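Sharing a chain and its predicted structure for anyone who wants a worked example. Both blocks are below, sequence first, tokens second.
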Amino acid sequence: MNETITDKFLTGERALFRSRGLTLERCTFDDGESPLKECADITAADCMFKWKYPLWYCKNVALTDCTFFENARAGVWYTENFSFRSGVIEAPKTFRRCRGVTLEDVYMPHADETLWNCRGISLRSVRACGDYFAMNAENAEIDGLYLAGNYCFDGAKNVTVRNSRLLTKDAFWNSENVTVENSFISSEYLGWNSKNLTLVGCTIESLQGMCYIENLVMKDCRVPNTTLAFEYSSVDAEILGGIDSVQGPFRGRITADSVGSAVGESPEGSIRIRK
């Protein structure tokens, strides 16, 4: 049987510990750790979370129009089937080792160390600022991510990113099976030590990016301000416009309208200039 709690100011550690089938409306959780730890089947709207660890070890949580304040640190860990639509997460280190995370129209101004080791992620219209976003994330579908923060998606696997803007040094390092479509990426040292990185219809600027990659595919990409690219990578790249410089050695094929300079020998790689 479901219970509805409305317009309550809740304090104290584990305020609603192990609750089941709750609907929360316009409630505030303050001055007490882990208020909803070990809960299941929770729906919350217009609620405020102001203290640490609010949703650990939970199952089936749906939030709408809620706010996680800065002190609600490490807010959602070890939780399954979590959705959050239309709200703000001000706190860092939210989402750790979760399964089934859906975020839509969410703003995260301090998203440091967020979405670590999570699986089954869906992000749509998310804006975030913070380093080490989505480290070791797996099975992620992302559309409309606006991210400012270095080292994103380090070690991530099976990730698709569409229609996004990423301002991030060292993006997608050590990643595997990543596809980025119709997006803008500004990233020094993009993609080092990754496997199966595919970039389609993207604009990329990078210093010494796309090096040490096994199976890099680029289709209809533009690379303004990109230098010393592709060193020690296996490449199949179709570049629209020119590229400032290519660093060898590399394997595979690069096609572009122009190449400012090619540094180092690449006996197993070729550059074709369109005429």
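Comments welcome. The chain has no helices and 26 strands.
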